[in-house]
Amino acid sequence: MNPVSLQAHLREIGVPPQRGRTSAIRQLVLQAPAPVIAKALGYHDKTATRLVTEAGGTWSRYAPGDHSR
Fold first, then answer.
1. pLDDT one digit per residue (tens) for the chain, 69 residues
2. Are 55 and 26 spatial neighbours (Cβ–Cβ below 8 Å)?
3. Can you say whether the dihedral through the CA atoms of 36, 39, 2, 23 is positive or negative?
């Protein structure tokens, strides 16, 4: 199934796809640091950080980078 047909099916049953997508992303950035979400979904770090702020999240103590040492 491609995004266009999925969007059509969601609209047929009364689910607005853009709102659902936005809600899902905002929930994700509350559960994990913005850089992690940005990398996983292909978003820019600034976009993910803005979403965290809009959603009311903090993650101000997250130190990005390689922690495997």
1. 787 888 888 889 988 877 777 788 888 888 888 888 888 988 888 888 888 888 887 766 666 666 676
2. yes
3. positive
Report whether 53 contacts 45 (CB < 8 A): no
**CA distances for 27 relative to 40, 51, 65, 67, angstroms:** 14, 10, 23, 25
Quick one: tokens of 56?
């009311």
Other beta carbons within 10 Å of 55: 15
Decide: pTM greater than 0.85. no
